[in-house]
Design a protein that fits this description.
mainly alpha; about 60% helix; about 0% strand
Length: about 180
């Protein structure tokens, strides 16, 4: 992955490269490897320090060409840690780096959305089938109720007698005398 360098980071990087560490031969404040007998030596050190300071100053401030190169880079800079409404609505958070890091979550959300939508459609289909079957059931109940009432009406004694009277072939008639009760001892 490429390293993003901002102009402020250039200054810090230059400082880190120029500052000698303990292994680079830097002397501790109390230690002295040479004797202070040579009077020209401190002035040479001061001159080299001034040259080093000038070199560091040049390295800290990027040239115009470096600044243009920095702005013309095609790779992305890291996201800022603060999301504002303006950045969200502007779509600044939809960068390739963000998408690459969150591809698993995005695929999970898409998969769950597909499952949710298909489940909704299958439930809707089942509910339509249930409504259709309930309508058929109520129709069947009403038909059974009407046929049962017709059967009850036709089985009444008065209707049966009228039917027998209208049919002259029948030998059945209404009894004129009440039935006899026979007692068996």
């Amino acid at each position: 992955m490429t390293e993003n360098i901002y102009p402020l980071n250039l200054k810090e990087k230059a400082k880190k490269e120029e500052t000698p560490g303990p292994s680079a031969g830097a002397e501790e404040p109390g230690e002295s490897s040479q004797t202070p007998a040579d009077p020209e030596e401190p002035s040479e050190k001061a001159a080299t320090k001034k040259e080093n300071a000038a070199d560091m100053k040049e390295k800290q401030e990027p040239t115009l060409q470096e600044a243009f190169k920095e702005q013309a880079r095609e790779d992305e800079r890291p996201q800022s840690s603060t999301f504002t409404l303006r950045k969200i609505l502007g779509g600044d958070w939809l960068t390739a780096d963000f998408i690459r890091r969150q591809i698993g979550v995005i695929l999970l959300i898409v998969g769950l959305s597909i499952v949710y939508i298909s489940n909704r459609y299958s439930c809707q289909k089942d509910m339509l089938e249930i409504d259709k079957l309930n309508a058929e059931l109520t129709d069947a109940k009403y038909k059974a109720l009407s046929s049962s009432s017709e059967l009850t009406e036709k089985c009444r004694e008065s209707n049966v007698l009228d039917l027998l009277k209208s049919n002259k072939d029948s030998l059945l008639r209404i009894a004129n005398q009440p039935p006899y009760i026979i007692y068996i001892p």
